[in-house]
Every structure is written in structure tokens, then in C-alpha cells.
Amino acid sequence: MRAVDIIIKKRDGGELTKEEIDFFIQGYTRGDIPDYQAAAWAMAVLLKGMTPQETTDLTLAMIASGDRLDLSQVVPIAVDKHSTGGVGDKTTLVVEPLVSACGLPVGKMSGRGLGFTGGTLDKMESIPGFNCHLSEEQFMRQLKEVGVVLAGQTAELAPADGKLYALRDVTGTVESIPLIASSIMSKKLAAGAQAIVLDVKTGLGAFMRDLEGARSLAHLMVDIARLAGRKAVALLSDMNQPLGFAVGNALEVKEAIATLHGGGPADFREHCLKVAEQLLILGGVAADEAAARPLLASALADGRAWERFRDLVRAQGGDLAYVDDPARLPRAALIETVPAPRSGYLAGIHARVVGETAVILGAGREKKGAPIDHAVGIEIHHKVGEFVEQGSPLFTIHANDPDRLVEAGKRLLEAHTWSDEAVEPLPLFYGVVR
């Protein structure tokens, strides 16, 4: 078998066999197949696509390139969630403890922010002492003993994905739906969850800008899970405006804490409950949404979800004084609220511009491994469809650099668009793929 023959077959629209995919991925991971051939293959996949079976075989080949956790050794069933990335998406910080408080263990490996999307690990590291770097043994022990764990992915899980993603990033092949789906699902399946809820974002602040592309990605990932013997559900959710109000690491932690106490923005709280409902259903705790919602509402109301968040922070070395009193979390030196320049209905709040502005302030990173400022960020004060009076607070900037504060103010004013006529609020979700 030769790599060039596999490239030609895919270039000409052929369906690759499992053996051909295994040969190519193993060879590339070992270094026997060079980057230039892998780049040619990735471009052929981008242009010609893959069937669900091909994409599943690719996913399984990437899993086979490294270690694979078997969480059934420590819990009867473990569930996980994955978001395709967005602006203000601190959902994991609420959903994980909430679902765990309902008796369903949640073991999650998360990532860091890159570009305009925030990373769950970066948010949690706003809490002094919180340790995201757990070994596989520590991950499994905490899942068994605490019922909730949130850590970074170890290098031993699906190393082929890390190598292939780095190549795609510089060869114009990131947008391939089969390569996106196999990248996401190889990491999720290698991490051992038996049931996965996928939060697939669509809109201006999402990787998948149009609903059709998001739906195709969702269907493909659910197909991969099914063909791999796992359960999965995908929610198609809106990311045209930020989720909640806070964008920025410590600010988002504060908003998640408020939500776990029964408060928080209405859209963010409802989003968390919808995702958590699907996890309880997949995990066999509830038969349907109607049965799941009271369980979740009770766990929020009686404080069990909040206590489980504290358990998570304590287990991973975080200082509980900072979550019990969120005012102690990192705070920016310059905080400025900008008033609305006119009265009218908010027609849009461009999520991507808001996310990119947060990066300019220092809340995100433009290059992998770059340091971030946990204190800085943005608070948006309104949602699309609301009527805003001229002079009332429109947004608040948290900055540590005066020049960046000025630039952020200009960008955020441009991100808000207006209408004299009433505007319909944006939906939270566009559907469910089972």
C-alpha cells in the first residue's frame, strides 16, 4: 500500500477502505508519511468529502494512535459535552456540576481558547490554584470519588489529531466537515465517555457560520458516535450574539457562579438547562425533557449544583475563597461603561467582533501558548430585540491598558447595530439532531 495511491483515490472521489485510512493515519503519526503528502490528502478530503463510514474509520484510526480511557472501570456510565466554540460560552462551568449533582458522573477534557473563542481551561484558571493538568490516573480517580472532573487533554490521547490539526491550520483545510467531525469525536471517544451531547454553534460568532453547515456537522458527529457504538445528541444553537452578558475569563466565572446560585442571564441559564436535559436523558436519569427539567431545577434551587462546583474546585486545588467571594477574582484596573449613542431597538450584537475585541484586551490568545489576562473582558448589557434608551449603559469594558480600552470602545460601538422598528429576539436553538 502506498500513500500516493490513497491520495489519488480520494482526489478522484473514491471511498477509502478502513485499511487504507489506518495505513495513512498510522504512517503519518509515526512520521513515515511526510507533511506534504498529508497536506495533499487533507485537501482531497476537503474537496471530495467523506462518507459517514469513512469519517468514522478516520475517527477510530486517530483514537488508535494513542491511549484510550475506559471510564466504565470506575463509573457505570460517564457523560460528556462538547461545544464547537463561541463567545461568552461558559456553559461547561454550570452544566458539569449541575448534571453531576443529579447523580450522573461527568468526566470532561476541555481545551484552551484560540482566536476569538474562549477556552474552558482558561476560565477555570482564573481561580488561583486550580489545576487543569491531571494524569489519566488522577482523572479517573477523581471521576470515581467526586463524580465530576474538568481537565486538559493529555498528549497520549489521539496524538494523530493534534498533528493533523496543526497541519490543517496552515494548509487551508480547517473547514473540511469530515476533518472537523473526526477531530472532535476522536478526542471525545478517546476520553471514554459513553454518551455525549454536542453543542454545535452557528452564526457570526461560530466556526460554522451558516445553519446548513452546522446541521451537516451535527449529523456527521452523531453518525460517528452511533457507528462507534456510543450515544450522542447534537443541539444546534445560536451564536450571532454573545451567550449571556460576560465575555472574558474571570467575568465569565462570576457569571457562571451567579447562575449556579439561581441567578445569571436568562438566555445563558436556559441554554445550560437545555444541554443538561439532554445529558440526563442520554445517561438514563430522565426519560425526556419534561422529566429532566424538575430534577435540574431542584439541584439548582437546593444548592447541590453549587456545592458540586465547589467540590470540583477543591478536588483540583482551587482556592475556594475566590469562588465563595467572586469579588476576589482577578479584577481589571480600568473599568469603563459606555452609554448607548441613540435610542432604538438592538438589531445586532456581532458576536465575532465582541470576541475579537476581548482578545485585543488580552482575554484570549492569537497564537497557541500565548499568555492571557484573566481580569480583562467585556460585559454586554442588552440582547438583540431589546429597546435601549439613549444614554443608558450599553456595555462595560474591563481593561488593563488605556490604549486597548479606547480601541475596544470603538469596536464594540460598531458591533452594535440599531433599528427604529421592533426586532425579533434571536432564538437560542435551531433544532436537535438525534
Summary of the model, kept short:
This protein has 3 domains: 3-64, Up-down Bundle (Transferase, Pyrimidine Nucleoside Phosphorylase, Chain A, domain 3), CATH 1.20.970; 71-324, Pyrimidine Nucleoside Phosphorylase, Chain A, domain 2; 330-419, Pyrimidine nucleoside phosphorylase-like, C-terminal domain (Aldehyde Oxidoreductase, domain 3, Alpha-Beta Complex), CATH 3.90.1170.30. The chain is built from 17 helices and 13 strands. The chain has helices at 3-11, 18-30, 35-48, 52-64, 91-101, 120-124, 136-146, 159-169, 177-190, 211-227, 249-260, 266-282, 289-301, 304-315, 320-324, 351-361, 402-415, and strands spanning 79-83, 106-110, 148-152, 195-202, 231-238, 246-247, 334-339, 344-349, 377-380, 387-388, 393-399, 416-419, 429-433.
Task: Describe the model.
The protein has a four-stranded mixed β-sheet, sandwiched between helices. A four-stranded antiparallel β-sheet has the order 6-9-11-7, sandwiched between helices. Strands 10-8-12 form a three-stranded antiparallel β-sheet. Helices cover 47% and strands 15% of the residues. Helix 10 (211-227) links the parallel strand 4 (195-202) and strand 5 (231-238). The model has no long low-confidence stretch (mean pLDDT 94). By secondary structure, it is α/β, with parallel strands linked by helices. It is built from 17 helices and 13 strands. It has three domains: 3-64, Transferase, Pyrimidine Nucleoside Phosphorylase, Chain A, domain 3, CATH 1.20.970.10; 71-324, Pyrimidine Nucleoside Phosphorylase, Chain A, domain 2; 330-419, Alpha-Beta Complex (Aldehyde Oxidoreductase, domain 3), CATH 3.90.1170. The relative contact order is 0.14.
